[in-house]
Amino acid sequence: MLGSTASASDKRRAFRAGLASGELMRLPGAFNPLSARLIARKGFEGVYISGAVLSADLGLPDIGLTTLSEVAGRGAQIARTTELPALIDADTGFGEPMNVARTIQMLEDAGVAGAHIEDQINPKRCGHLDGKAVVDEQTALRRIRAAVDARRDPDFLVMARTDIRAIEGLDAAIDRAKALVDAGADAIFPEALATLDEFEAMRRAVDVPILANMTEFGKSELFSVDQLRDVGVNIVIWPVSLLRIAMGAAERALDELVDKGHLRDKVGEMQHRAELYDLIDYEQYNSFDDSIFTYTRP
Hints:
Layout: H1 8-20, E1 25-28, H2 33-41, E2 47-49, H3 51-57, H4 68-81, E3 86-89, H5 97-110, E4 114-118, H6 137-150, E5 157-162, H7 165-168, H8 170-182, E6 187-190, H9 196-205, E7 211-213, H10 225-230, E8 235-238, H11 241-260, H12 273-279, H13 282-292
Parallel strand pairs: 1-8, 2-3, 3-4, 4-5, 5-6, 7-8
């Protein structure tokens, strides 16, 4: 009831242990706290909090318009409601290295298990669009060093994302990933790798966990969990998938209202009220309320 019973430290340790186990961790993207709770119920190992989803939720493009307080606030909302560790997208860290340091501490306070900082210029853009630009290597390394130095909980995962593959090729991505690991990154997010062979090459190149981004309509083929596991990927995210599915269903329902003036034919596609109440532990709230408000007037 009310939120997670596990502490932020517990969830961070669990995230680290999962990565150390060698098993692939599956992190669907939650577009709100309720969807995060559903992800946990379905047996996944973690939750991903996408900057693209947060931007879209605010009616904005994913070009660095969201603020640190907005991202930290959504992270806290989602982390509070699930026992799973949450990995959050911190874009470019919201400024210079000092800003990156503050970002990490605010995200620690929000209760998430880790964050990734990328090497795009600011303002950034979606990692699977053309026209990206990245900062020079020293700037990228300063961001990661600032993040690592700023964290207070050593179990908070600092992941470095590099977008250089789409600009300078795989060899440049591998070289930058190695440098980011040397700067202290606990894990690597190589954005927009094109093939399984590229993921395998990245896996051989660095000795920290690597992440695969299986976003639809992007540069990467939509590989299966088994395919990614076989080439040594440690984390897979589907950052925007649930939002896309939900918005597609919402649009079809609105079309039905326009065409027919009712949703009687859509009821079978809806989450039943009883299922929603079960997901949010409605009965526990009722029981708590009854146990407190027992006073009767003499």
